[in-house]
Amino acid sequence: MKRDIIDATVVLLAYSVASVASAQTTQNVQLSGAAFTPANITITVGDTVHWIWSSGVHNVESGVIVSGSGQHDGNFRSGDPTGTVGTTYDVVFNQAFLNANPMPGSVYPYYCVVHAFMNMAGSITVQGPDCSGVNNCSGHGTCVAQDTCNCNAGWTGADCGTPTCSGVNNCSNQGTCVDVDTCDCDAGWTGADCSMVACEDVNNCSGHGTCVGPNTCLCEEGFGTDNCSVQVPAVSAWGMVVLGLVILIAAAVVIQRRFKPVEP
Ligand SMILES: [Cu+2]
Fold first, then answer.
1. Cα torsion through 164, 167, 168, 170, rounded to 10
2. How far is the CA of 33 from the centre of ligand 1 (A)?
3. 41 CA distance to ligand 1 centroid (A)?
4. Which of helix, strand or coil describes residue 19?
5. In terms of pLDDT, which residue wins out, 262 or 15?
6. What is the rounded distance in angstroms from the CA atom of residue 226 to the CA atom of residue 205?
7. CB proximity list for 32: less than 8 A, separation 6 or greater
8. Is this prediction's pTM over 0.70?
9. How many angstroms is it from 125 CA to the middle of ligand 1?
10. Where are the alpha helices (DSSP H) in 22-76?
11. Which helix (H) or strand (E) holds 45?
12. How far is the CA of 175 from the centre of ligand 1 (A)?
């Protein structure tokens, strides 16, 4: 019992791996009596339809039956009718075929010319490739093959889910690209491309300095600390003049006292 479950699991796993790995498949259609079996099939771009003559005299011709007779549209034809059992005919419905033989909705009707009067007909509906494995290209690209996206400008990644910032110098390596050409700049940097210095973490230099580096202020005279918010004593020009005068007067007094003539 347990062994059976394990075996079934292995088979299921092998099957799912195989169905993922083989992107392009072949669909068989039997020709017998006065019918194609199965008559109407849906395939994916790149798939092959493989017709097999099982019994009777038939051919495969694209087109529709009008009033019991086939109207060939020129898309594909197996050749003249044959009754040789085991005869096969293949058509690969790849993108090149679809481009060369476009049909509304990529639906390809066909018939057997011998049994058109008995309405022996079929159709092949060709669907685009499936990109559900890559989030359907995230709405930012075109599914060009099984789980293969062609991303729109501004987007990258297997699922086209990653924005690019090539239009803003990739954020100058000083920020994170968060949307198409939209940067979230690192601390100390600003601008669309994060190339300009910012001082937002040092109160923009408190209005008393210049931002000269990332969160680095050059304070104007009279202000100090990292954010230039603290007033510091400044030696002004007038201060220097007053200080000079005081020194001169003091020196004069000292000199006068030293060389003062001795009182008789
Ligand atoms: Cu036929």
1. 40
2. 7
3. 18
4. helix
5. 262
6. 8
7. 54, 55, 56
8. no
9. 21
10. none
11. none
12. 68
Question: 201-248: per-residue pLDDT in tens?
Answer: 999 999 898 999 999 999 988 888 888 888 887 555 666 666 677 777
- Do residues 52 and 29 lie in contact, with contact meaning Cβ atoms separated by under 8 Å? yes
Euclidean distance between CA atoms 180 and 92, whole angstroms? 39
57 Cα–ligand 1 center, Å:
6
In sequence order, what are the beta bridge partners of 141?
Answer: 151
Give Cα separations from 259 to 247, 251, 262 (angstroms): 18, 12, 9
CA dist 119 and 66 (Å) reads 9
| Among candidate residues 163, 170, 140, 161, the one with its CA nearest the CA of residue 152 | 140
Strand partners, 157: none
Selection from 43, 45, 48 nearest residue 146 by Cα: 45
- In angstroms, the first-to-last Cα distance of the chain is 138
Q: What is the rounded distance in angstroms from the CA atom of residue 124 to the CA atom of residue 50?
A: 12
Lowest-confidence pick of 48-57, 115-124, 250-259: 250-259
Domains by residue range for the chain, with CATH: 2-127 (2.60.40.420), 132-163 (2.10.25), 169-231 (2.10.25)
AA identity, residue 250: A
Q: For residue 263, which amino acid is it?
A: E
Query: What's the DSSP call for residue 58?
Result: B
Residue 157's alpha-carbon distances to 87, 145, 150, in angstroms, are: 46, 15, 10
**63-88 burial string, b = 16+ CB within 10 Å, else e?**
bebeeeebeebebbbbeebbeeeebe
- As a whole number, mean pLDDT of residues 31-44 equals 97
